[in-house]
Design a protein that fits this description.
The protein has two domains: 116 residues, Orthogonal Bundle (Arc Repressor Mutant, subunit A), CATH 1.10.10; 104 residues. A hairpin with a 2-residue loop joins strand 5 and strand 6. Helices cover 34% and strands 22% of the residues. It is globular and about 60 Å long. Helix 2 runs parallel beside helix 3. The protein is an alpha+beta fold and 265 residues long. The strands form two sheets. A five-stranded antiparallel beta sheet has the order 6-5-9-8-7. A four-stranded mixed beta sheet has the order 1-3-2-4. It contains ten helices and nine strands.
Length: 265
C-alpha cells in the first residue's frame, strides 16, 4: 500500500465524505497521536512517540493551510515511520520536493491524500474544463489547504494532462508531471524569455488565467514548436514562480522523441 493509499483508507474507514469533515486533530487523536500547538525552533513540526502513543508539536502560525498540512504530515510519519522521531520543515512541500529525503516526501504524499482524498478532490477537477488559478484557489478554500499543496495534488491525481513546476531566476527547482504524460517530454531547466513565468520573475506580473503558448517555450524537444499548451503562473516563496502547464491532446499522442531521449524526466 502506498502512502497515498494509506491516507485515503483512513478517510474511508472514518466515513468522511466532505472536505469540511477532514478534521486533522481528530484524525490524529484517533491514531493515538496528541497534537500540541506551540512555537518550535528551527522547524515547523516535531514528532516523538513511544509504543502506541505520540506527540506532534506544531508551530501555530497564522496560515491555516500550512498548519493543517503540518499536522497531516506528522500523522503520515506516525503511520508510515513509527519508531522514529522527526523535526520537519513543512514548507508547503516546496523544500521537500526539491530535496532527496524519501521519508519526508512520503509524509508529504500521505498529507496530500489525507487532506484532499481522491473521492472528494477528483470530482472538483473533472468539470470538463482545465481549472485556472481562481478555480484552484476556490478548491483550496473548500479543503482548507494552501495553493501550493492544491496545485501539487492537481498533478498527482493524474486527472488532467498537467505539469506543475517551480522556477527561480537560477532555474528549475522542482517539477511534477501527471503520470499519463509521456516521458518523451523534457522540461527546460531555465525559464524561457517567451514564457509568462519569465515576465513574473523579472517584473512580478502574474498570469492567473489560461494563456496560450508554443510548447517550445517550455520543452527542449526539437518538435516542441509544433504543439501548443496553456500556461499560468503565480508568485511563490522566495521570489519564485509557481507554474501550471496544461498540455494539448496532440502532445499526449506524439511519437517517442529519440533525438532527446535521456531515460525519462
Amino acid at each position: 500500500m502506498t502512502a497515498g493509499d494509506c491516507a485515503e483508507a483512513i478517510i474511508s474507514d472514518l466515513g468522511i465524505d466532505s472536505p469540511e469533515d477532514v478534521d486533522v486533530d481528530a484524525i490524529a487523536f484517533d491514531a493515538g497521536l496528541e497534537v500540541i500547538y506551540e512555537p518550535t525552533v528551527g522547524c515547523e513540526a516535531t514528532l516523538v512517540g513511544f509504543e502506541n502513543r505520540g506527540i506532534a508539536t506544531i508551530n501555530p502560525g497564522p496560515v491555516v493551510g500550512r498548519r493543517r498540512f503540518s499536522v497531516a504530515h506528522e500523522i503520515g510519519h506516525w503511520h508510515l515511520h513509527r519508531g522514529r522521531s522527526f523535526k520537519c520543515r513543512v514548507d508547503d512541500a516546496d523544500n521537500n520536493l526539491a530535496s532527496s529525503q524519501p521519508l519526508e516526501k512520503e509524509a508529504d504524499t500521505f498529507a496530500s491524500h489525507l487532506l484532499m482524498p481522491g473521492p472528494l478532490f477528483n470530482p472538483r477537477v473533472d468539470s470538463g474544463k482545465y481549472p485556472d488559478f481562481d478555480v484552484l484557489a476556490d478548491i483550496a478554500t473548500q479543503f482548507k489547504t494552501s495553493l501550493m499543496a492544491t496545485f501539487i495534488r492537481l498533478a498527482t491525481c493524474n486527472r488532467l494532462p498537467v505539469v506543475v513546476a517551480c522556477y527561480g531566476n537560477d532555474g528549475r527547482r522542482w517539477t511534477l508531471f501527471a503520470k499519463d504524460i509521456p516521458k518523451r517530454w523534457f522540461l527546460k531547466r531555465k525559464v524561457d524569455e517567451d514564457s509568462f513565468a519569465y515576465d513574473l520573475l523579472k517584473s512580478g506580473k502574474e498570469r492567473r488565467q489560461h494563456g496560450k503558448q508554443s510548447a517550445d517555450a517550455w520543452f527542449e524537444n526539437d518538435d516542441a514548436g509544433n504543439f501548443e499548451l496553456s500556461e499560468q503562473c503565480v508568485a511563490s516563496f522566495g521570489g519564485r514562480a509557481l507554474v501550471v502547464l496544461y498540455l494539448e491532446s496532440a502532445m499526449l499522442e506524439a511519437q517517442p522523441d529519440w533525438n532527446n531521449y535521456n531515460g525519462g524526466k
